[in-house]
Design a protein that fits this description.
single chain, alpha/beta, 31% strand
Length: 139
């Protein structure tokens, strides 16, 4: 696929095995379903003690959702060092990052999730800050 050819650098986090709680993934899935056909968007927060376990989604006030985009209001992002990346949905069946997604990944965070229709535990993928797929385990 063409989007893989754009990847040149490996980030330090691309070899890290991230984990996400089943409850958090379920929240992401249900949120994506509830705003369909628009995109859902949020930030990923890790457990204070287990810094590789994603446990929560933070919603930023003023986030704008459309059928082909979600605009984060990053100036509204809380000062919170447990926020490690972003999550958003695609209203299509593709969870591959767009060029705009890749720009977002490079600017904000170490791990990112895209979930696509049908918004299930099989229709999502985690990415590092360079847009490389990363292993993510549901716990």
């Amino acid at each position: 696929m063409k989007w893989f050819s754009r990847r040149k650098k490996q980030s330090a986090d691309s070899s890290k095995a991230w984990m996400i709680t089943k409850q958090c993934l379920s929240l992401i899935s249900e949120s994506a379903k509830s705003v369909y056909p628009n995109e859902f968007a949020g930030l990923l927060r890790v457990d204070e003690e287990k810094k590789d376990v994603i446990t929560e989604v933070v919603l930023i006030p003023g986030t704008i959702s459309g059928s082909q985009h979600a605009l984060y209001q990053m100036h509204m992002k809380p000062v919170d060092f447990s926020i490690v990346g972003t999550v958003h949905s695609h209203p299509s069946e593709s969870f591959y990052p767009s060029e705009a997604d890749l720009q977002l990944f490079r600017k904000y965070g170490r791990v990112h999730i895209i979930i696509a229709r049908p918004y299930s535990d099989r229709s999502w993928q985690g990415y590092d800050g360079m847009g490389n797929p990363v292993e993510m385990r549901i716990i």
